[in-house]
Design brief:
elongated; 7-stranded antiparallel β-sheet; Metal Binding Protein, Guanine Nucleotide Exchange Factor, Chain A; mainly beta; single chain
Amino acid sequence: MSDVRVEKSPKRVRVMFNGRYVADSHPLLVWERPYYPTYYFPNQDVTEEVLEATADIEPHEALGSGSAFNVRVADRLAPDAALRYPDSPVAQIRDATRFEWGAMDHWFEENEEVFVHARSPYHRIDTLHSSKHIRIDVDGVTLADSTHPTLLLETGLPTRYYLPKADVRMDLLTPTHLTTACPYKGNASYWSYGEHENLVWGYSFPVAESAKIAGLVCFYNERVDLWVDGVLQPKPVTQFS
C-alpha cells in the first residue's frame, strides 16, 4: 500500500509549450516527495497529439512502473518531458499525466504565471513588520544591527529576519553568482562574507505574496550569531545548516 498523498487541486492549471497549451485542467496534487507536490493532469485534459511514446522508465519506489513521452509542438521537442503510470499502485494517477516542470515554457494557476514547482496548499508564508532589535555577528564582527526587521514565517522553516540594507554592513559583503528560485518568494541573489559563502540573500522583485521583503536582505540563522532583543538565539538545524 502506498503512502503517497493525492488530492484534487481547486485551481485551474494550464501548461504551455511552444505557444500551445498542452494541458488545461483542475489537476491532482501528488506528493511524490514530502517537501512539495507535483501536478498530475487527467489524460482527457491533456493534448494527446503532442505526446510521442518513447520508453519505459525506471520504476518509482511508490508510484510503480511508468512510461515516458516526448512533448512535440511544431518544430520544438522536449525529450521525455511527460510521464504516465498506468499500472501504478496509486490508483488515482493511473489515468493521469505528469509534465516535467522545467521542460515546459509556462505554467499558470488560473490566470497567474507560477514558477519552480507546484505550490502546496499547506505551505504558508507570513511577512510581518517588527520593531525587534536584531543583531547579527559572524566571527565576532557585527554585520547587521537593526530595529526595523521584517519577519518572514514560512511553514517548516525558522523565522527569517529580513533587514534594510542601511542596517547591514553591505560594504563587507561580496555579491556572488548564485541565484535560486522559490515559488513562494521569487528569485534570490546572494552575498558572501569572507569564507562564508552565500551567507546572505535577498529578493529584489519578490512575488506579490512576499512583496514586503523587496530590497531587504537576510542571513542564515543556522550560520550566524543572532541576537533578538538582546538574547542570543540557538542555531536551528535545517537543510541549510
